Amino acid sequence: MSTQVPLSISEDTIHTISEERGEPEWLLERRLEAFRALEELDLPDVIQTPGRRWTNLEDLAFEEFVDPLDQRDETERVTAEGAEVLPFTDALDEHEELVRERFGSVVDPETNYLTALSAALFTTGTVIHVPDGVDAEDVKIRAEMNSGSLFSHTLVVAGSNASATILERVSNGEDTPADGDDRRYFSNVVEVATDENSYVQYGSLQNLDEDVYTYSLKRGDAARYATISWIEGNLGSRLTRSDIETELDGDSSETKIVGAFFGHDDQHFDVNARVWHNGEHTTADLVTRGVLDDEARSVYEGVQDVGREAWDTSSYQRENTLMLSDESEADASPKLIIHNHDTEASHSATVGQVDREDLFYMTSRSIPPRTARNMLVEGFFVPVLEEVEVDELRDDIQELIAQRLD
Amino acid sequence: MSSDQDHLKQTDTEDRFDFKKEEKSAFRSEKGLNEETIRAISEDKDEPEWMLERRLRALEQYHAMPMPTDWPGQPDLSEIDVDEIVPYIRPDVDTRGGVDDWTELPDEIKDTFDKLGIPEAEKNALSGVGAQYESEVVYQNMQERWEEKGVVFCNMDEAVREHEELVREHFMTTCVPPSDNKFAALHGAVWSGGSFVYVPEDTTVDMPVQAYFRMNSEGMGQFEHTLIIAEENSEVHYIEGCSAPKYSAFNLHSGGVEVFVGEDAHVQYSTVQNWSKNTYNLNTKRALAEKGGRMEWISGSMGSKATMLYPSTILKGRGASDNHITIAFAGEGQNIDTGAKVYHNAPNTKSTIESKSISKDGGRTNYRGLVHIADGAEDSSTAVECDALMFDNESTSDTMPYMEINESKVDVAHEATVGKIGDEDVFYLQSRGLDDDDAKQMIVSGFIEPITEELPIEYAVELNRLVELEMEGSLG
Questions:
Q1: Which among A156, A356, B50, B112 is placed 20 to 30 Å from B401, CA to CA?
Q2: pLDDT (mean) for B330-337
Q3: DSSP states of B255-323 as a string?
C-alpha cells in the first residue's frame, strides 16, 4: 500500500524551491528523484497487534495543511571555535563537495514516504562541519517554525578525532500561519556522519505547539572507535513520530540513545530507538523514560539488532513509563534480534504508577501530596537527565517538566 | 562419563525417539481440501449435523483468510501445501470406543508406545492414558473413582456423541473461534481426535491426566482437538507429549486446545513436544479464566521445521491469574517462533511469563508475546522474563514482546537477556573433572530447570533426554 502524493505538489514546486535557493543542479536532481519515488514508498512501519494499530499515520492528510512554497522559520545558530555551523544554502556555497558527498549518505531519502517528502521539499536546515581533531563544544541550533508546514534537513560531519556537542531546540515562533489552520506539520531529518575516533553528542528538545504533527528521523553512522550519543526530549506537538537510529559499522564504536517524553491532554508520542551492531566490540545503551498524564498515549519500540559478524557485542535497553492518569495509555515493544552468540544483551520495559509508599513517606513528612507527586516525577527523570552533558539542555528539560506539573 | 556409556546413551535415546512404523490405515481421506473431504470425515465419524455445519463454516473461513505473512521475522510458511496433506487417517484397528486394557491393543501399536516409554509412564503412577496413534485415541484407562465423581476423560470424537450439549456449547465458540486465524479455521474444518476433559464442581483430580500423540503417516496432518472444562472450584493437570519419527515428506500439525477455567478453578496444561524436523507445527491454544481462576501453561517445544505457537489466556474475571513457563530448543534448519499472549480484562488479575530458549547450529528461536491490560483492569500486574542461550554464531535468537497498557493502576515489567554459555562456568566445571560436553550439558540442564521442575518426573526425564539428544555430538 503506497501513499498518495499530495495534490498541491508537482515537479514545478520542486523547481521553484530549488531555484529560489540558487541550488546546484545535482541537488535539484536528488530532490526530483525523491519526489518521483513518493508513489512507490510507504509510510514508516507502525506496530500492529491483533485488532490494534499503535499509531495511525495514514490519517495525516498532507494536502490539507502542507504548503511547500510557504515555509518560514527563524533559526539561530551558535558555532564553536574551529567548527562551521552554516545554514544549508551557505554550506552549498562554501563546501559544495562535502555536502554533495555526505547529503543522503546516512539517511537514504527513499527510506520511506516521509523522508522522501523531506528530501524533495526541505527549505531549512543546518550543516555542521567539525574538521579533524577539532573540539566543538556547545554548538546550538534554535529553530522556530513560523508557517503551516516546515521541512528541515540537518547534516553533521565529524572528522577523525573530532568531537562535538550539539543542542537543537525546536519550537514555534510568534507568527501563526496566515490561514489559521489548526493543524501544522514539522519534518526534521538529521544525519550524522563520523570518521574514526570522533565523538558526537546530539541533544534535541522538541517543544512545538500542540496542534503540530511532527516526524523526526535522526540517524548516525559510527565509524571505528567513534561514539554517537543522542538525547531526545519530546514535550510538545499533537502527534510525534520520532525515530533515533545508530549504525555501529566501525569496530569498537559506541552509541547511547537517551530519551525523555512527557505527554498530557491528548498528545500521542510514537518513540523509536534502533541500533544495528555490525562491527566488532560495539556497545549500545538505550535509556528511555516517559510520563503520561490526562489522555496522552505513548508507543515505544526499541530494536537491538546484532549482526552475524558483530563479535563481542554489548547491548542494553531500558524503558520505563510512569502513568499519572487512568485515561492514559502506554504501549511498549523492546526487541532483541541476535545473530551472533558472542553477545551480552538485555532489554527491559516497565509501566506503573508513582509508588504509593514513596508518596506516603513524603506526605507523612508534611509535604503536600501534589508537591510530593511532582517531586517523584521530577526524580523519575533523573537517570535520563544525568546523561545530558549540556547544562543548558538539562536545565531546559527540567524547567519544562516542572512547568507541566504545575 | 566414559565413551562406552556415551555410546549406550546415544543409541538408547536415538532408538527411543526416532523410528518409523509401517503405516496401515483403514480410512484415508482423498488428498486435497474441499467440501467433499469434510463431509466424508464427518460422515465416517457419525457426527451430528451441527458439527458438520461448523466444519463447513470453518472451511469457508479458511479459504477466505490470508496466510499470516506480515509478522516481522516470522517463519517461512510458503512450502506448506495443505492440499498435499491428508487430513484424516484412522488406524486399522477397531477403536471406536477405545479399549479398556493395555493388553487389548494391537502389537504394533503397543510396540510404538513401548519405544516411547509409555508403559513405564503407565506404571509410574499414571492414572489414565489416552494415546493418539495417528488421528484417533486408541487406548484409554479411566479410574473408576473418577467416573464416580463425574469426571469425564474421553476422546473428542466420543465426546461429540456422548456429551453433545457440553461440546456444542464450548467447541470453537467463545474460546478459539475458527475466524481467529487461518490455521484455526483449517483446524475447525478437519479436526480429528484429541481429548475431552470435564471436571465437575469442587472436584480435584489429584493425578495428572495424560495423552500421547504420534504422527506416523507420511504427508498426513494431525488436527487433534483438546477441550478441557474445569467447573467452579475444581482442579486438574493435563499433560500431552509428542515424539514423531523423521520423514521426508512435509507434515503439518495444527492442533487446537481450548481450556475453560471456572471460578476459583485451577488448570495446569503441560506439554513436551518433539516433532520431526520436517513438521510445521502451527497450533492455537487458549484458555478463558473466570473470577479467581488460575491457568498454568508449561511447554517444551523441541523439533519441528517451524513452530508458531502462542498459548494465550484471557483473564475474564476479577482475581484470575495465569502462569506461562516455556522452553524452546532450535537446532539446524529449525525456526521456533513461540511465546505467550495474556489479556487482562478484569481487575486484580495477575500473570507471569517465563521463557527460556536455546539455539544452536543455525537454529532460530524467537519469543513473541503480547500482554494487554484493558482499561479498568486496575491493580493488575504482569512480569515477563525471557532468557536465551546461544551456542554459535550461525544461530539466531530474537525477542519481540508487545505490551499494551490502557490502565494506570498496574505493575508491568518485561526483561530479557541473551548470551552465550559462560566460558568461566565451563572452565569451573572442567577444573572439577568434567569434560567440555558434560559441562555444557550440565549448564543447559540447569538453564532449563525452571521448566523441568514443573513436570512429573517421567516427563522431566524425557525433556532432559531430548535436550541431550539435540546436543550430542554437536558441542565443543
A1: A356
A2: 92
A3: -EEEEEE-TT-EEEEEEEEEE-TTEEEE-EEEEEE-TT-EEEEEEEEEE-SEEEE--EEEE-STT-EEE
